Known about the structure:
Helices cover 28% and strands 20% of the residues. It has 7 helices and 10 strands. The strands form 3 sheets. It has a 4-stranded antiparallel sheet, covered by helices on one side. The chain has a 4-stranded antiparallel sheet with strand order 2-3-4-8, with helices on both faces. α1 crosses α7 and α6 packs across α7 (184-204). The longest helix is centred in the last third of the chain and has 21 residues, at 184-204. Mean pLDDT is 92; it is low at 264-272.
Amino acid sequence: xxxxxxxxxxxxxxxxxxxxxxxxxxxxxxxxxxxxxxxxxxxxxxxxxxxxxxxxxxxxxxxxxxxxxxxxxxxxxxxxxxxxxxxxxxxxxxxxxxxxxxxxxxxxxxxxxxxxxxxxxxxxxxxxxxxxxxxxxxxxxxxxxxxxxxxxxxxxxxxxxxxxxxxxxxxxxxxxxxxxxxxxxxxxxxxxxxxxxxxxxxxxxxxxxxxxxxxxxxxxxxxxxxxxxxxxxxxxxxxxxxxxxxxxxxxxxxxxxxxxxxxxxxxxxxxx
Length: 272
């Protein structure tokens, strides 16, 4: 599933190349009611929040997209090919065409419904209006492991498995630390690390963690982009201990026991 930086990058591309254009729309695969409403309208705004993409067309018509695990957006600046039968939505103009396939959400939302959806989402580190105070309050609710809490989009929006693993490593935080025991100072370092990784990804199209191995690891054919993500059994670039991969809530969690031990700053448990 694309992480938040990929969705923000798409939003930036759409604001640059698609806003102000009038589109015709069709849906080879299953959303004729959406295409019928959008066809002939001008795109006036694009916004991203976490892993969600919002397009606003003239007449205050709102399109909500969530790519999920299998969604894909293809962009064409010149003559576009015919859409495949799996294309959920095609938006075509004289200068740019978009093909959307496999999303988990492709729907029209009333402004009120969009506001309700956004209110359920956590703070997005890439948004200028993000509140670290609100993010800290949501993230530290309950005793579930910190690493599990970070993937809850209602706590922090846009963080996926890559950013989770690399940000926890960069800040030296134990991934299984109960979320409610995360100290405010440690959270601020974690928030800054997540934001930096996501900003790099939104700008460059990929994430490269500071301190990642500059040379290929044993058995690898190219230089690494990450310090721990996807590197189970390989040496930690910081301390040399083997990177560990373990299942947590059906997702693989990557960490270094040598760099992410239990000796972190904790705050007192909340009174019951």
